[in-house]
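[Automated response] Your request has been received and processed.

Submitted sequence:
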Amino acid sequence: MTARPFGRCHGMTKTQRMLAALALAGAAAGLAAPAASAAPVSPLTLPDLPAAAPGMPAGAQPTSVQEIGSQLSAGANQLNALMALPDHLAPVIAPVQPLTDLAGGLE
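Generated structure:
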């Protein structure tokens, strides 16, 4: 009788063990999927708006979550416009750029 390393499957190669582990994981996922899909879906609820702080201006507090979303969207649009500013200034900067490059090299 030959001695074999402890903790190994004697009749399986490494590839066979990996395939068996993948098959077991796939079977477990297949059994879990119907149970997960059978759960009732809860409706999405929006958070309550915070109360205004004392001394806050009248128009400073948004009246709805949709208003908050529209303000965020407007801010994102302004940020996109700011990010595009170098592209719009390129025709103005291009004629002067060789001079600024020379001035930067004269330090």
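Summary generated for your ticket: The radius of gyration is 32 Å. The mean pLDDT is 75.
If you did not submit this request, please reply to this message.
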